[in-house]
Write a structure and sequence with these properties.
Elements lengths: L2 H8 L4 H8 L1 H14 L6 H10 L6 H11 L7 H24 L3 E2 L2 E2 L1 H5 L1 H22 L2 H24 L7 H26 L6 H22 L4 H4 L6 H5 L4 H8 L3 H12 L7 H11 L2 H19 L7 H15 L3
Antiparallel strand pairs: 1-2
Helix pairs in contact: 2-18, 3-6, 4-8, 5-6, 5-10, 6-8, 6-9, 6-10, 8-9, 9-10, 10-11, 11-17, 11-18, 14-17, 17-18
Length: about 325
């Protein structure tokens, strides 16, 4: 057995792995829907879409749709197409984000905008958004259409809001939470909320929406902490992307709370004005450590993961409920 295979065999099982195992058959159907619905008579569309979709990713959002449907015992095939729609919305936003952020890497390889160009990335993102809406309409539920279309609009607003906070040291924690609630957590919330709708358990929709919203906020805060951690490289991502792009995230906001004049001048130059040198990322990490900014950010993330767990309190014990609970805690724990 090769060293790589041995490492894979002995890697600890995560809640996401467990969830994927429980929903393996469903995810096969979702992947079929994804492949079938990204096809087009224009060859560049499936080529570019497949480049990103086939490059990995956790598929956490479609898994949430499946889990939040199957937890009620239904065997309806409806979540397969809708989980694919959720993944298409997510993929479209990634394609657009990488153009806006001028990203160099995505999931451990060159970003699609570098390989195929900005124009193609934006237009294929638009195609995937359209495909998502076609899948929603085909499902026939106005409630599902409303939930996912509202989430799509909120995501776009969140991206625009993030443009106004980037490079702005006057950004508040409230501003930051508003941005990540829109650009990240809104799709988590929608992916979870449509589960009970599909299963005919409308009275549980609000609880699942809350679970997804709090999970998404915790996920994004933890991901922003990872931007300054060596652990990020294990996930196929580059350390310091947010720093280089001048994004105001939780670690910087906590570091600014008690920053001295020298530190504030550093943040203004590197983040506010984006005038950076090769040693600035290391200095930023030192300042964050000095103020325990990452620890404070993780504590904030953990407070939201606790809220996510509490939102599930009305549900009966089951393997899927345990997975959703464990996933809320793991989304914070993965950051260190």
């Amino acid at each position: 057995m090769s060293t790589q295979a041995l490492q894979q065999d002995t890697a600890p099982q995560t809640p996401l792995d467990t969830l994927s195992g429980l929903l393996k058959d469903d995810m096969l159907q979702v992947n079929t829907q994804i492949i079938d619905n990204m096809q087009s008579e224009v060859p560049l569309i499936p080529q570019l879409a497949g480049y990103l979709i086939a490059s990995g990713g956790k598929r956490i959002r479609p898994l949430l749709t499946l889990a939040c449907t199957r937890i009620y015992g239904t065997d309806s095939p409806r979540p397969h197409a809708l989980a694919a729609a959720v993944e298409f919305i997510h993929t479209a936003t990634l394609l657009h984000d990488d153009v806006v952020d001028e990203s160099k890497q995505r999931r451990g390889k060159d970003a699609a905008n570098l390989v195929f160009g900005n124009q193609a990335s934006v237009l294929v993102g638009d195609f995937l958004f359209s495909r998502a809406f076609q899948l929603m309409v085909a499902d026939g539920s106005l409630d599902v259409l409303r939930i996912l279309s509202d989430a799509s609009a909120i995501i776009a607003q969140g991206e625009v809001k993030q443009l106004t906070t980037a490079n702005n040291l006057a950004t508040t924690m409230e501003d930051y939470i508003e941005v990540i609630s829109a650009k990240t957590a809104a799709l988590f919330a929608a992916a979870c909320e449509i589960g009970p709708i599909i299963a005919g358990q409308d009275d549980q929709a609000a609880a699942m929406r809350d679970y997804g919203m709090y999970l998404g906020i915790a996920f994004q805060i933890a991901d922003d902490v990872l931007d300054y951690s060596a652990n990020r490289e294990k996930l196929g991502k580059t350390v310091g992307d947010d720093f280089r792009e001048g994004k105001m995230t939780a670690p910087i906001l906590f570091a600014l709370e008690n920053a001295n004049d020298e530190e504030r001048a550093f943040w203004q130059r590197t983040v506010g004005e984006r005038r950076q040198t090769e040693t600035d990322l290391a200095q930023a990490q030192d300042i964050l450590n000095r103020h325990d900014a990452n620890g404070k950010a993780l504590a904030l993330a953990r407070s939201y993961s606790d809220k996510a767990v509490a939102a599930l309190s009305s549900h009966r014990e089951s393997p899927l409920l345990s997975c959703l609970t464990d996933l809320a805690r793991f989304t914070v724990d993965r950051s260190y």
